[in-house]
């Protein structure tokens, strides 16, 4: 029997797979407990502390220089600060100091930035408890306090303030979210199952929500439905506009009260407020919103949950929230304040104007002239003081004025559609009758926009003008602002 030699194919020596360590993460030097709060002059302040931000390279950052990323993506500090932070090693990539400010960021990199953190003050007003059981806490959120840590805010947030009050290991789970400037009803779950249940209810639109707003001028009496679609035109700035091509949005409005401006016996404005020059009078005459006198308290029922929906719809209707620093700001939207505008193509101009409004010059709403306050542009806001932090040379800001702590928008009531629960708060102070005037100090069934849904039936969310024949005639005038 012959034997044959078989030549096996040559297989090179394969090296075993080498485990690659993940990028190094810089950890915050400290997690101060108790939290470094200081209550002073009606404000909750946080003593400065060291903190490290860690973030993975985003897709749009790949292949870009590290300084270019910080200079264009982050507006909190000037470019000179970020250049020095990179060169001194306060900004590192994968835990290592980079060779220069031109270092290229790659996919998978972790960027760490350690800094002496200065948080803005927020109101010292306590978080009100509307209801609490074993599953859920219903709170009355103060205006001006963000829900989650974000941007310049960390410990001065609803989540961290509640954690400080209830213990370091307690984990609050917010179920709905309000803008930082908005006050009112919020749900905080005590455990994941309860939070998920209520969150699903809200997302399924089986929860009725009612807000109260204070707006410029005499809002129309009766019921007004605005179904103008809303589009986000700048995710970075959180800016939204009424847009025919936006997402479906519908809000029911019903006026609660109107308060005209107080005049002196001779008919002049009190306290000599109307001291404009002829040039200023001529300028103001071209601004329709400036001619709207007094203010209205309006109940708002959003049937959808678009970002800034109520603020955008009120602006579209010509009655923006009186002290809204964005949607009642002619320096952003021009003299008309975008009344009835859903088709213009000036989004880029508006984004540019808003992005240039930094802390060196407070955003002026220039919105209202009533007997209770001085003109907005004469008030002190949070501005640079010209002083520097002795630890990190960060420019310091003055304390915010009352007008920066919130806007006249309050989430007054949340109710389950099937009637299982209903939580509400009293009217905020700014919605009460001014001194010397009569007006409602509470809401009534007659002024309840939620009742309109029951009167007219299910309101369809579409962009066509509703057919009144489909509904039962409401007991009050019904105004429809179609998209």
Topology:
Layout (H helix, E strand, L loop, with lengths): L36 E4 L2 E4 L2 E8 L9 H8 L5 H10 L2 E3 L16 E8 L4 E2 L4 E5 L3 E6 L16 H9 L6 E2 L8 E7 L2 H12 L3 E10 L6 E4 L3 E5 L4 E4 L8 E9 L18 H8 L9 E8 L6 H8 L13 H4 L13 H9 L28 E5 L6 E3 L11 E8 L5 E3 L25 H7 L21 E4 L2
Parallel strand pairs: 10-19, 12-21
Antiparallel strand pairs: 1-2, 2-6, 3-5, 4-5, 7-8, 8-10, 9-10, 11-16, 11-19, 12-15, 13-14, 15-16, 17-18, 19-20
Helix pairs in contact: 1-2
Description:
Helices cover 16% and strands 23% of the residues. The chain has 483 residues and is an alpha+beta fold. The strands form 5 sheets. Strands 7, 8, 9, 10, 11, 12, 15, 16, 19, 20 and 21 form an 11-stranded mixed beta sheet that branches. β13 (230-234) and β14 (239-242) form a beta hairpin.
Structural descriptors:
single chain; 483 residues; alpha+beta; eleven-stranded mixed beta sheet; three-stranded antiparallel beta sheet; 9 helices; 21 strands
Binned strand content:
15-25%
- Mean pLDDT, nearest integer? 79
Instruction: Point out poorly predicted stretches.
Output: 358-381, 460-478
Please summarize the sheet with the most strands: 11 strands, mixed
Number of strands: 21
Tell me the span between the first and last alpha carbons: 94 Å
C-alpha-based Rg, rounded: 27 Å
> What percentage of residues falls in helices of 4 or more residues?
10-25%
Order of SSEs, N→C? EEEHHEEEEEHEEHEEEEEHEHHHEEEEHE
Number of helices: 9
Structural class: alpha+beta
Described by the principal axes of the CA atoms, the overall outline is globular
């Amino acid at each position: 029997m012959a034997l044959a030699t078989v030549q096996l194919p040559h297989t090179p020596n394969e090296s075993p797979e080498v485990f690659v360590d993940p990028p190094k993460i810089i950890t915050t030097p400290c997690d101060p407990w108790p939290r470094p709060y200081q209550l002073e002059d009606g404000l909750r302040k946080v003593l400065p502390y060291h903190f490290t931000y860690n973030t993975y390279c985003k897709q749009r950052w790949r292949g870009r220089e590290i300084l270019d990323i910080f200079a264009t993506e982050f507006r909190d500090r000037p470019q000179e600060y970020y250049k020095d932070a990179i060169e001194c090693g306060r900004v590192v990539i994968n835990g290592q100091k980079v060779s220069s400010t031109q270092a290229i960021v790659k996919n998978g990199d972790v960027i760490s930035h350690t800094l002496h953190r200065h948080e803005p003050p927020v109101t010292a007003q306590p978080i009100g408890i509307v209801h609490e059981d074993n599953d859920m806490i219903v709170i009355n959120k103060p205006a001006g306090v963000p829900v989650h840590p974000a941007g310049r805010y960390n410990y001065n947030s609803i989540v961290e303030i509640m954690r400080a009050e209830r213990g370091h290991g307690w984990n609050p789970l917010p179920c709905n979210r309000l803008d930082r400037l908005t006050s009112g009803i919020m749900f905080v779950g005590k455990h994941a199952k309860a939070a998920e249940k209520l969150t699903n209810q809200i997302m399924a639109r089986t929860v009725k929500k009612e807000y109260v707003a204070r707006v410029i001028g005499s809002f129309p009496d009766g019921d007004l439905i605005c179904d103008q679609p809303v589009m986000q035109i700048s995710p970075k700035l959180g800016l939204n506009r009424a847009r025919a091509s936006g997402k479906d949005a519908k809000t029911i409005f019903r006026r609660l009260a109107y308060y005209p401006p107080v005049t002196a016996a001779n008919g002049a404005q009190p306290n000599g407020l109307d001291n404009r020059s002829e040039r200023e009078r001529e300028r103001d005459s071209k601004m329709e919103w400036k001619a709207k006198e007094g203010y209205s308290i309006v109940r708002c029922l959003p049937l959808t949950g678009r970002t800034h929906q109520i603020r955008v719809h009120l602006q579209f209707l010509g009655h923006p929230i009186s002290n809204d620093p964005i949607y009642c700001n002619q320096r952003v939207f021009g003299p008309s304040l975008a009344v009835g505008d859903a088709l213009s193509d000036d989004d880029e101009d508006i984004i540019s104007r808003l992005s240039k409004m930094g802390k060196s010059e407070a955003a002026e709403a220039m919105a209202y002239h009533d007997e209770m306050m001085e003109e907005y542009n004469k008030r002190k806001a949070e501005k640079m003081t010209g002083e520097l932090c002795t630890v990190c040379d960060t420019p310091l800001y003055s304390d915010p004025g009352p007008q920066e702590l919130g806007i006249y928008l309050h989430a007054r009531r949340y109710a389950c559609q099937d009637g299982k629960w209903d939580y509400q708060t009293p009217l905020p102070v700014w919605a009460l009758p001014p001194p010397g005037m009569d007006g409602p100090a509470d809401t009534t069934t007659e002024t309840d926009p939620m009742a309109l849904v029951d009167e007219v039936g299910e309101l369809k969310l579409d962009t066509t003008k509703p057919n009144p024949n489909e509904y039962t005639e409401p007991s009050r005038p019904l105004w429809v602002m179609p998209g």
